Amino acid sequence: MIKTLRLGIMGGTFDPVHYGHLVTAEEALVQFDLDRVVFMPTGRPVRKTHRSVSSAEDRYLMTVIATASNPDFEVSRLEIDRPGDTYTVDTLRQLRDSYGPSTELFFITGADAIREILTWKGAEELAGLTTFIAATRPGYEADPLTDAMPPGVTAPRVEPMAVPALAISSSGIRARVADRRPVRYLLPEAVSAYIVKNGLYARDGDR
Ligand code: NAP
Q: How far away, in angstroms, is 12 Cα from ligand 1 center?
């Protein structure tokens, strides 16, 4: 009998990647008995018009640096190399086509993003493509999606997963770098060295 591959897809902007993300991926690996987790930095995020996002290449490289020592983690260029705005449904379709039916996909991301999935492009298709793992801060209840679905459409399966380390946030780290406050112990040192070397998140006069 062919063993089903259980593949975690860790979707995020990762601007920058931090220990909250790494703990989330490791926790999902164990809790959901995944074979490996593929980090998928978003190419061109569709909903981030209110602020400038670091280049896809910087976010990809920081994610590679952060995950390099873990044999169960990989980083994909799929979304970064696909032209146009990034939609999760396109990624999941592509992965489903290349891995085939013997692979089960688990899309891991923040609960705040997952709460919006009914408004994502191709929402009605998502249930057939993946199980969502919604990373939450402890004490936060993930909303059930079932009631919000139009009649005849199956709600995607959403599994909540509490992650204490998610008190760390990318926006908090960006603000700390801009204010020249310490970020040590919030993200891998090699990632913070990359941020300094490339002048990411610094105020204009500090570059
Ligand atoms: P976001 O709105 O920036 O993030 C929402 C919250 O989730 C933030 O607190 C964020 O913290 C956290 N988060 C994000 N990714 C996470 C992860 N992998 N693990 C744990 N926490 C995470 O979300 P986003 O980064 O733009 O999008 C998340 C994913 O949803 C991406 O893969 C994106 O492509 C997808 N998405 C798809 C559509 C669509 O298809 N229409 C629309 C929106 C998002 P940090 O800031 O610290 O990461």
A: 4
Output the CA–CA distances (angstroms, integers) from residue 154 to 117, 128, 147, 185, in the order listed.
13, 8, 10, 42
Q: Is the pTM of this model over 0.85?
A: yes
Ranges of each domain in the chain: 5-168
Quote the CA–CA distance of 152 and 77 in Å, as a whole number.
35
- pLDDT, tens digit, 9 for 90 and up, residues 52-111: 899 999 999 999 999 999 999 999 999 999 999 999 999 999 999 999 989 999 999 999
Using CA atoms, how far apart are residues 68 and 200, in angstroms rounded to an integer? Answer: 21
Summarize pLDDT for 38-50 with one digit per residue, the tens. Answer: 999 999 988 776 6
Spell out which residues line ligand 1, taking CB within 6 angstroms: 10-13, 20-21, 24, 42, 45-47, 86-89, 108-110, 112-113, 120-121, 135, 166, 169-171
For atom 22 of ligand 1, the residue with the nearest CA is 110
> From the CA of 143, how far away is ligand 1's center (Å)?
16
Residue 35 is predicted with a pLDDT of 98
- Tell me how crowded residue 172 is: count the other CB atoms within 10 A of its CB: 15
Task: Give phi and psi for 94, each to the nearest 5.
Answer: -60, -45
5-168 classified as CATH 2.40.30.10: no
